[in-house]
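Key result, reporting period 2: structure in, sequence out.
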């Protein structure tokens, strides 16, 4: 990306931090990772994808969260507890027979982005699992309480996880 394009993207994201990441990426012909990294530095921290399994195990202890998969064709949302998982046969396997389960290509995760920003008039906090192509595999959002505020206990866990992983840098 040209430095002028990057500066323009950074200015846009500073003015519009709640913009839908995937929409901005598509409109500007950049990766979602580039959009995330163009957010003001106070809103994003990035760590390496090698921490995929550790992050997923930590998130499994948070309780009810919202996991979102956003593709060009659909936005899937799951609200509930993310199950614990383990690596086997080339995948990170979510270990429960019902609800959210499946097999994740953890080795394609290049980065974990910890994002706290305004979105639709409220503060949001999520972990974006970013793949080797700069796309977002999925996002896990800190849950909300009965007043629609971020759950304080999960926000603490989110920030602790960001501290541990982002301190080690990103690929």
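The corresponding designed sequence is given below.
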């Amino acid at each position: 990306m040209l430095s002028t394009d990057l500066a323009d993207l950074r200015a846009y994201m500073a003015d519009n931090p709640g913009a839908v990441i995937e929409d901005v990426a598509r409109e500007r012909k950049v990766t979602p990772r580039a959009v995330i990294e163009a957010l003001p530095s106070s809103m994003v921290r990035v760590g390496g994808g090698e921490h995929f399994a550790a992050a997923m195990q930590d998130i499994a202890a948070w309780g009810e969260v919202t996991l979102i998969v956003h593709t060009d064709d659909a936005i899937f949302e799951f609200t509930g507890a993310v199950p614990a998982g383990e690596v086997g046969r080339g995948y990170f396997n979510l270990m429960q027979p019902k609800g959210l389960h499946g097999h994740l290509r953890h080795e394609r995760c290049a980065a974990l982005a910890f994002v706290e920003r305004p979105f639709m008039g409220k503060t949001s906090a999520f972990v974006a699992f970013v793949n080797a192509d700069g796309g977002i595999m999925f996002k896990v959002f800190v849950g909300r309480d009965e007043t629609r505020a971020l759950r304080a206990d999960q926000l603490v866990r989110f920030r602790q996880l960001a501290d541990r992983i982002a301190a080690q840098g990103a690929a």
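The first strand starts at residue 44 and ends at 48. Strands lie at 44-48, 64-70, 75-81, 85-88, 91-94, 102-104, 109-119, 122-131, 136-141. This case is discussed further under Risks and Mitigation.
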